[in-house]
Design goal:
Blueprint: E1 10-20, E2 26-36, E3 40-43, H1 50-58, E4 65-70, E5 73-74, H2 80-83, E6 87-90, H3 103-113, H4 118-131, H5 147-159, E7 165-169, H6 177-192, E8 196-200, H7 204-210, E9 213-218, E10 221-227, H8 228-232, H9 235-240, H10 247-254, H11 258-269
Parallel strand pairs: 3-8, 3-9, 6-7, 7-8
Antiparallel strand pairs: 1-2, 1-4, 4-5, 9-10
Helix pairs in contact: 3-4, 3-5, 4-5, 10-11
The structure holds adenosine-5'-diphosphate.
Subcellular location: Cell membrane
Protein name: Energy-coupling factor ABC transporter ATP-binding protein
Organism: Anaerosacchariphilus hominis
């Protein structure tokens, strides 16, 4: 129901953001948007600037121009360490963030690092491993696991920190149907709790199933930003950003029920 839905207001305010790497060409050009507690998918072709944008939100990169405000405060004055307990970030490649030799140690590392006591950290870690369906692998070496499982370990290690914001870079890569269901369930759970989920995705079926807001990026700029219904119904945007329509939408169109797709989706919002 509407009453249970979070309405946390703005979480990030991004104003006239510009970025380039060293003396390279601009990667983000005058990006202005705000992010609230709706689950938000960022889509667009490779090289559009999606990862760069979310790294800036995590404080891993600093703007070349413009500003990012988090929770009403300018991020310019904050270090990555100050944001560690606030903004969780799951890298595209789990091997960029996994470095312990036991799954449980790996998942406990973040919580311990932000000051949780050992017992609490372990409880959080075990809960997070359960949520991603890997509780039986707690004693394994992460390097012995498959890529899809390492990605779930990486997700668990960020979930265990219980941050207000969760950024996911390509969470569904290498996941089968079950993994996608698990990740989708986590996104829904976090959104219900008023957390902000921001994810970069290439899988439009997954986007249209789990994300209420879609931001389309192209060449360092925001090409479209709105509800999934609004964005997926804009043919020119999909073509320009070379985005595939979700398959359910294609099917409805093929059957001549184009409107049915959107009614179906709108029905879920009520
Ligand atoms: P996306 O996530 O949409 O694929 P990225 O943010 O990864 O886009 O990349 C945007 C642009 O920035 C690309 O042209 C990419 O080559 C460039 N880029 C990304 N990371 C670096 C880096 N560390 N150094 C220099 N250029 C980079």
């Amino acid at each position: 129901t509407k009453g249970q839905e979070a309405c946390g207001g703005e979480v990030f305010q991004i104003g006239h953001l510009n970025f380039r790497y060293q003396e390279g060409t601009p990667v983000l050009r005058d990006v202005t948007l705000s992010l609230d507690s709706r689950s938000t998918a960022i889509v667009g072709q490779n090289g559009a600037g999606k990862t760069t944008l979310v790294k800036l939100l995590k404080g891993l990169l600093k703007p070349v121009g413009g500003s990012i405000w988090y929770g009403g405060e300018d991020m310019a004055g904050k270090t990555v360490a100050m944001l560690a307990g606030e903004v969780g970030y799951v890298f595209q490649n789990p091997d960029d963030q996994i470095f312990k030799y036991h799954v449980l140690d790996e998942v406990m590392f973040g919580p311990l690092n932000i000051g949780m006591k050992k017992e609490e950290a372990e409880r959080h870690a075990r809960e997070a491993l359960k949520e991603v369906g890997l509780e039986n692998l707690a004693a394994e070496n992460p390097y012995d696991l498959e890529l899809s499982e390492r990605k779930l370990v990486a997700i668990a290690s960020v979930l265990a920190m219980d941050t207000r914001v969760l950024i996911l870079d390509e969470p569904t890569i290498a996941q089968d149907w079950k993994g996608r269901q698990i990740i989708g369930g986590i996104i829904q759970r976090l959104e219900k709790q008023g957390r902000t989920v921001v994810a970069i995705l290439h899988d439009m079926d997954f986007v249209s199933e789990y994300f209420r807001r879609v931001i389309v990026m192209a060449r360092g700029q925001v090409l479209a930003d709105g509800t999934r219904e609004a964005v997926f119904s804009r043919k020119e945007v999909l073509e320009k950003a070379r985005i595939e329509e979700p398959s359910l939408m294609k099917l409805c169109k093929m059957l001549g029920y184009e409107k049915a797709y959107f009614q179906l989706k709108e029905g879920e919002e009520v």
